[in-house]
From TrEMBL:
Protein name per Swiss-Prot or TrEMBL: Light-independent protochlorophyllide reductase subunit N
Source organism of the structure: Palleronia abyssalis
Keyword annotations from UniProtKB, A to Z: 4Fe-4S, ATP-binding, Bacteriochlorophyll biosynthesis, Chlorophyll biosynthesis, Iron, Iron-sulfur, Metal-binding, Nucleotide-binding, Oxidoreductase, Photosynthesis
Cofactors, names only: [4Fe-4S] cluster
InterPro entries: LIPOR_BchN/ChlN, Nase/OxRdtase_comp1, Protochl_reductN
Amino acid sequence: MTQLPPPPALGCGAAPVLKERGQREVFCGLTGIIWLHRKMQDAFFLVVGSRTCAHLLQSAAGVMIFAEPRFATAILEETDLAGMADAQDELDREVGRLLERRPDIRQLFLVGSCPSEVIKLDLGKAAERLTRVHAPHVRVLNYSGSGIETTFTEGEDACLASMVPVLPRNEARQLLLIGALPDVVEDQALGLLSQMGIDGIRTLPARRADDIPSIGPNTVYALTQPFLGETHAELTRRGARHIPAPLPFGEEGTTAWLSAIAREFGVDRDTFDAVTEAPRARARKAVARATETLQGKRIFFFPDSQLEIPLARFLTRECGMDAVEVGTPYIHRDIVGPDLDLLPAGPTISEGQDVDRQLDRARTARADLTVCGLGLANPLEAEGLTTKWAIELVFTPVHFYEQAGDLAELFARPIRRKEKLKLKEVAE
């Protein structure tokens, strides 16, 4: 098998973790609907929530008034919140209307929000009841995207975890790729694995209900996203086995991820090298262009998407950056442990958030680039810090070889912009 660069003499696998348990500044899990509804082509996401939930989704998705997206909000009115109306009856009625108008829907997700959580609306029982009514054409599932229970990317985790218990059983040896990726990126991964001779690969989420995978004790799975902790647990409960590996960001991460799968399926070294040599070279060349800007620059991560640890590994080992602090909402060691082991020792590793304390550390550090949420970016920019929106790292295709250069450029662009503005100020 291709030799990967050695891990650092001192990685962050055993580094102490600063546990933060204060106020958070992050989007709620409802935001995941924006990419999930594009991925699952015959699914519909019905948020049971308030007008605020509806405005959030419309703003995040940029929905035009003429569009008919595959998500909506069933508005909880004052009578629902006060217990003066039967919210379950109203929900049944709205779902009936929706499915009558949209016969193309094969999977319907009832998505809990802060209001539905507060009034203890049992969407689990509602999903079971509605499945009995509308089966076999439509399966109804539920999960929570409430900001009380979930942060930004946990919405996808909760969604996929809700699907695992109802997956059909299968005793055959098979590989599952877990995590929602843009179709073009997913096709690249499937193509590389297929060229190595690995057949029968399935994905979760599948693009259509008819392609939903099965699962059993001979199923192995590889995660493409670091924030799928609950999905990981549900798959393990069903008897599937995880293939631990660094996440496929950048040339090194992608090679290590593919290498772990190749070892599992007995792919020989010559085949692996023949399949990966050309795309690896393209990835290295593309990343090198951004490295000219990123080399030696310092970066500070606020906790937002749970992508922070693998991204810090990519930026330090492949782009020459120095990480000051790597904050992440949660650390799932079974998932990000391989990335932590590769991340060179030095940065503060923090889990959770106390936003005021972390703002103080960010202001003291004054890193060349601060990765944070939208709510913090503008105030920090006004204080002279260069920022990168964490949300863009989730909405942009960044996985695997062909996107490695684009991923590096996402971090290089704001630094170049700052340098150009400085030159303009000097010239004036």
